[in-house]
């Protein structure tokens, strides 16, 4: 049958990947019937610290319960966490001053996974620790510190007097 100008032609297409299967009036919902798992939407970085990064996720409104899997990698460190699909996820025990790639996927009750959402963040470097003055005179000051954990390439040392920076120098890690 040919369609007239005012009519549109529609074709039947299966759409059971989005709708639950109910067998009869009063039957319970079967979450294993959902094949499609929506990826996390609107993932934002809420906070970056020296050893943790927290993310905000928009929860997916659905009768299906999802989990969130967050995989993270750097040049020297990797890990993974699973959590409930909730508003925030915090990844802890990261290395200070390190760039990470975060892969976030949603997992359905039937084990199916969404496509991944990728974010990149660099943890804050840790400050020097155990700073001690070794020499002090009217014209100079010598001090040293223990190297903090994590990756550090440069230190900036500022000498201030009455709130004003009198001198600043940049020192490369050796």
What's the arrangement of secondary structure elements?
Elements: E1 41-48, E2 53-58, E3 67-73, E4 78-84, E5 88-91, E6 99-107, E7 117-122, E8 129-136, E9 141-146, E10 154-161, E11 164-172
Antiparallel strand pairs: 1-2, 2-5, 3-4, 3-6, 6-7, 8-9, 10-11
Protein name: Fibronectin type-III domain-containing protein
InterPro entries: ECM_Regulatory_Proteins (IPR050991), FN3_dom (IPR003961), FN3_sf (IPR036116), Ig-like_fold (IPR013783)
Keywords: Repeat
What is the tally of beta strands? 11
Strand proportion: 35-45%
Oligomer: single chain
Q: Could you say which overall geometry the principal axes of the C-alpha atoms support?
A: elongated
> How helix-rich are the residues, as a percent range?
under 10%
Distance between the termini: 80 Å
Protein name: Fibronectin type-III domain-containing protein
Domain Fibronectin type-III: 127-174
Keywords: Repeat
Organism: Xenotaenia resolanae
General description of the model:
This protein has strands at residues 41-48, 53-58, 67-73, 78-84, 88-91, 99-107, 117-122, 129-136, 141-146, 154-161, 164-172. The protein is elongated. With 174 residues, it is mainly β.
In short:
This is Fibronectin type-III domain-containing protein. Helix content is 0%, strand content 45%.
């Amino acid at each position: 049958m040919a369609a007239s100008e005012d009519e549109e032609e529609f074709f039947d297409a299966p759409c059971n990947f989005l709708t639950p299967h109910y067998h009869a009036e009063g039957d319970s919902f079967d979450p294993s019937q959902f094949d499609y798992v929506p990826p996390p939407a609107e993932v934002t970085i809420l906070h970056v610290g020296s050893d943790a990064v927290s993310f905000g996720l928009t929860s997916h409104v659905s009768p299906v319960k999802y989990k969130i899997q967050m995989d993270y990698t750097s040049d020297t460190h990797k890990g993974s966490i699973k959590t409930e699909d909730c508003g925030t996820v915090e990844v802890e025990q990261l290395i200070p001053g390190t760039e990470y790639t975060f892969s976030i996927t949603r997992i359905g009750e039937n084990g199916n996974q969404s496509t991944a959402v990728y974010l990149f963040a660099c943890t804050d470097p840790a400050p020097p620790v155990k700073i001690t003055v070794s020499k002090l005179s009217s014209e100079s000051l010598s001090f040293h510190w223990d190297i903090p954990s994590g990756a550090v390439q440069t230190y900036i040392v500022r000498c201030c007097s009455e709130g004003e920076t009198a001198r600043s120098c940049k020192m490369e890690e050796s």
